[in-house]
Amino acid sequence: MDASILNLHDQIQAKPKSWITIEILASAQATRGRLTGGLADYANADASVASAFALAPLGSGPWLTRAHIDFSLHRFALALDALDAAEQRVIIDDPMRASIHGLRGELSLQAGDLDLASELADMAEALDPTPTTAARSAQIRWRRGDYAGAEALYLEGLSRYHGLDPSVRAWFHLQLGIMELERADHDAALVHFMDANAELSGYYLVEEHIAEVWALQGRHAESLGLYLDIIDRTGNPEFMDAVAGLHIAAGDPAEANPWIEAATQAYEAQLAAHPELAYGHALGHYIEFGPSARAVEIAQANLALRPNGDARAELIRAYLADHRNADALAEAQTLDTDAWRTANTLSAIHEAYAASDQLDAPVAVAAREQLCAMAPLQCPE
């Protein structure tokens, strides 16, 4: 990616008015940001897209690339505007229309509208079946609680990919592992994460999940070493939290405190600079380490940004951390009516009812039964 980006800069220097080359540069910068976790790359991609628009003829421009970058930065309203503009282009072929439908589907998923997301994903699949369209359909199955169906679609997407980019194959294995991790099957998750690592070693998203599983398996020294290496490369506060958790598990809170403080400072800086991007990542920190009122504040903002089942589940946990059990129970009752039925959301419902000593309530009983059927290793005792 470094070599590709340098080459694109050379091309732009030779032909500075080629907005299409600048668009390609923006996509490459965003891709490198995804692989490294570097926000500077996304900022550069943002600037490159703006430069491309400044050069593009009136009525044209990199609208689809603009939409993808806005989506990556969780600027969902702007992404929808860009898709609207992309759809107004005079010539749209089936692959482009499929991309537009597919990204609209992902935005609908973020908004919690599973039916619309499914409809749009099906439209994209019918126009241009690709690894991406299979993956988008898999995400919807997953959120409906159909883990077997989601797994089949992820494997279908993987079988469709015949390119040379190992990050694509690594991403599919990563998703399969995350599904198993959500269901608490740590051994199965680790197999997928190792498969992903074999495809693309050094990918921090894969390595952090390997470290997470090692911690859950009691392999704390190995987990700690890997987390420290990832922190050196990314400076990501999520992994500072993980290191703090390992020290607390080892009975050494004094060692954990500097990591918690460093993570808090990093999260507050992210929330100030890129609030939409930071909400979902910072939330777990404040739920676990406090202050709990800050966790509630962020969880409410996160739910406003993406009113879906997982965001509501995290609001429940924030309320529980803040000892607002009645509010958590009210959110659990709302979540119970949602089609979003994952191991994560069912666990949140169970946690809310357990905190209120109402585990014999019909909603709690039904949620536990569904959770135990869906994720036997996560079945509450």
UniProtKB/TrEMBL annotation:
This is Tetratricopeptide repeat protein. The lineage of its organism: Bacteria, Pseudomonadati, Myxococcota, Polyangia, Nannocystales.
